Fold this protein.
Amino acid sequence: MKYTPSEIKKKGLFYSIPIYQRLFEWNTENIITLLEDLKKASKEQGDYYIGMLTSTNSNELVDGQQRFTVMLLLGCVLQKYYDEWKGFLIADNKTRISFTSRPSDNTYIRFLIEHTEEENRSFKNAKMWNGIKQIREFIDKEFDDDEKKRNFSEYIFEHLSFFISKLPDEYSPRDLNKYFERMNTTGKNLEQHEILKVKLLSNLDNDIDRYMLLWNKLSDVDTL
């Protein structure tokens, strides 16, 4: 099923980041590239696919922390222009993502959601703060009035899209860690065949899980 910030809010979904996940690493170039792509996509009002995320059935993100965190940072800035983001960022007094072994990042995410200006703090996640800074500067530079900012904010809330693949319940913590290492050792961005997979699945209304299973089986076939 396709997910967006809007759908996540409606379904009341919360996600956790396991202990073996690396820190948030997106730099200025990554952030600006995403924002420029979103601006182009917003002119056509079609969905913008940020890729495939992988989670356990208990909503632990095994792969996709970077993209989900960027979505949260977008919401931190865009809530100023479109109120629906507020319920996405925090609901039932819980932030939409939590870090299992990083209490300082949990506190800092909450701070970013609730504050608009930097403060002198004993702890600051420099990459997250840079993300906030780049998003804010891009919005102010590219959109010259509040209505345009609101429209862009609403577009992202409704159309920033991804699929979430669920791993089997029988995966042990060691299995999950191995899966994560396999997915991230190359440090590459989404491959072209993965983008194709997302676009093909976006046109399906039924049996998405069946087709995902078939795709994954074909992906595992050794080629000569």
